[in-house]
Amino acid sequence: MGSDYSTFPTVSNYYTSMPTRSYNGSSKESCVRSFHTTYDWNKHLDNIKGSCQLMVIDFTASWCGPCKAIEPAFMELAAKFTDVIFVKIDVDELMSVAGEFGVEAMPTFCTDQTW
């Protein structure tokens, strides 16, 4: 069950170190982490196991208009709440991870503290 997003175009490293704008107009470096391989994603999960740190995951796609529209707010939240881990996962790059979370539409947001 789930959607096959393999027919849509992808953009490599789309979210890596993206600059963002805060509401007051100043430029900030993004606090959002992105993962482009399942190995890196699983390594990240292993590193935070038992930490009880809140993580917010944004499942997105480079071709998704609503994802692009919500991105500035997501980036601003990441800059504001530095004690929370903010993650973007492109469903075209990590289809297996999106499938594990039952993602069928974008954007989809997931949160949890019990990794």
TrEMBL record:
It comes from the Eukaryota. This is Thioredoxin domain-containing protein. CDD domains: TRX_family (cd02947). It comes from Coptis chinensis. InterPro entries: Thioredoxin-like_sf (IPR036249), Thioredoxin_CS (IPR017937), Thioredoxin_domain (IPR013766), Thioredoxin_H-type-like (IPR050620). PANTHER family: THIOREDOXIN. Residues 12-115 form the Thioredoxin domain.
